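4.2 Preliminary Data

To establish feasibility before requesting continued support, the project team ran the inverse folding procedure on a target of 494 residues. The structure was first converted into the token representation described in Section 3, and no sequence information of any kind was made available to the design step. The complete token record follows.
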């Protein structure tokens, strides 16, 4: 069992269960101990990025359970500084007996990679450590911070008395704020939720998190937060910005300061949370205002992390399925060819006799399909094809579609299936050249592993050569799928 993303908070480990357990730990946290002790378990706290609260409260949680632990803060004293890979670093820690590894790093997807490497090490190499090894993600770059969300949720239950039916404002550097991403993931499907996402232009919540999200508005202004029950404020992540973006942030940051006047202009029962550290986004003059609950929130860090550790050390270990990621090789279903209706008028393009016609592409999206072709290396610039854009079609709200005709070209099944997964309305027509036509629907592939590369430099796949890119299909038959890096969530094309 690991705590890697909000996907790890389901079933018996729901947010409710986590909050209830965190609350039951409150008395123990006060007494700096717990009735249940794990004195034989070793924990390594590997904090490769700066941390005050998360590092300290994780260490306190470990100590309250009587565990043995090593704290590594920064890369100065470990061999990563000499160029040792993440994979080898994790292997070493497991070989030296670690049963829990709490990891904070700027490398996105490193916790999932750690979980795979550690499991493989226990299965195939380890002499001394019987495992299993539990990974706790204490923040991976701009991606996720699930243990923070566990304490944020505990705070929301404490202050509102419920975990649904409220308006949640999230404000700040929503593009790079990992606490914001995990918080939105945690609450997105809860009943009666409304979201107000406030960020300066260019630092908005990434599409991968708003995709399919209901009941949300986006704004650049703090005024949009007036009716929120909870405002979750965050700092600008300057260390993750280019010098140019940093200059831009310096020029607009004064617009994002919550001071007395701003606070008084909002719903009078609002509660303002903040994962901390704050820089200047909550003015010091309102630090002691009852509506600011950021410091109480930080106190829940110990109990929430005790709750998570308790879960990891007492529940049966759930393995990561290392064999699940096989390329889906044969996707072509069997269909019966139909005769081509030669009476049907073709108005907008030159019909082809043999090849593939990709029809009902949403207007203007052919470029994305061409990007797919280039990734799959299946159609070079010289191949004869016709692109017909903005053809009239009553099926679409704007009455337009694109059609792509590939003369004498048999589209490989995996490419066809990928196109249909992204654009479920697309029809793929195969013309074998004998006067018949085959219209096919393909099953959604599970993942892509060949010829794919993650465009995010901070992704573990671009940092450790043992971390091979894997892109997973995420979506539904109605919304269509996004094809996302399994480690950092970046989209392959869309
Ligand atoms: C945050 C983090 O490191 O992600 N803080 C925390 O863990 N409590 C927020 C931040 O750095 O802005």
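Position-by-position output of the design step:
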């Amino acid at each position: 069992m690991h705590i890697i993303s909000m996907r790890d908070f389901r079933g018996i480990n729901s947010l409710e269960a986590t909050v209830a357990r965190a609350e039951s730990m409150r008395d123990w946290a006060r007494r700096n101990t717990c009735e249940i002790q794990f004195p034989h378990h070793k924990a390594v706290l590997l904090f490769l990025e700066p941390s005050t609260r998360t590092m300290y409260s994780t260490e306190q949680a470990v100590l309250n359970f009587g565990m043995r632990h090593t704290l590594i803060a920064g890369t100065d004293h470990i061999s990563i500084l000499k160029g040792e890979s993440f994979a080898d670093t994790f292997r070493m820690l497991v070989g030296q007996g670690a049963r829990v590894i709490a990891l904070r790093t700027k490398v996105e997807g490193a916790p999932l990679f750690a979980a795979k490497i550690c499991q493989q090490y226990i299965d195939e190499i380890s002499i001394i450590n019987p495992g299993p090894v539990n990974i706790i993600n204490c923040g991976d770059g701009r991606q996720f911070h699930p243990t923070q969300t566990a304490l944020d949720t505990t705070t929301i239950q404490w202050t509102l008395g419920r975990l649904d039916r409220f308006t949640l404002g999230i404000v700040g550097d929503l593009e790079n704020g990992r606490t914001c991403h995990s918080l939105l993931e945690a609450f997105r499907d809860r009943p009666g939720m409304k979201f107000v996402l406030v960020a300066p232009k260019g630092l908005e919540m990434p599409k991968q998190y708003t995709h399919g999200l209901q009941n949300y508005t986006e704004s650049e202004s703090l005024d949009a937060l007036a009716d929120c029950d909870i405002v979750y404020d965050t700092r600008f992540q300057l260390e993750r910005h280019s010098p140019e973006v940093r200059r831009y942030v310096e020029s607009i940051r004064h617009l994002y300061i919550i001071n007395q006047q701003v606070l008084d202009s909002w719903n009078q029962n609002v509660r303002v949370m903040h994962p901390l550290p704050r820089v200047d986004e909550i003015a010091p003059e309102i630090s002691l205002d009852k509506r600011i609950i950021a410091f109480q929130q930080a106190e829940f860090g110990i109990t929430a992390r005790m709750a998570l550790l308790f879960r990891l050390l007492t529940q049966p270990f759930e393995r990561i399925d290392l064999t699940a990621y096989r390329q889906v090789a044969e996707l072509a279903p069997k269909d019966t060819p139909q005769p081509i209706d030669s009476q049907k008028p073709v108005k907008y393009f030159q019909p082809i006799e043999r090849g593939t016609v990709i029809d009902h592409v949403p207007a203007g999206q052919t470029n994305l399909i061409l990007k797919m072709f280039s990734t799959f290396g299946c159609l070079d610039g010289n191949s004869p094809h016709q692109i017909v854009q903005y053809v009239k079609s009553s099926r679409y709200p704007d009455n337009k579609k694109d059609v792509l005709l590939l003369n004498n070209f048999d589209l490989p099944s995996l490419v066809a299936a990928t196109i249909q997964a992204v654009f479920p309305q697309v029809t793929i027509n195969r013309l074998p050249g004998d006067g018949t036509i085959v219209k096919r629907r393909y099953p959604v592939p599970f993942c892509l592993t060949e010829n794919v590369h993650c465009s995010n430099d901070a992704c573990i796949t671009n940092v450790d050569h043992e971390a091979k890119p894997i892109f997973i299909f995420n979506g539904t038959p109605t919304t269509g799928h996004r094809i996302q890096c399994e480690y950092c969530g970046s989209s392959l094309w869309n």
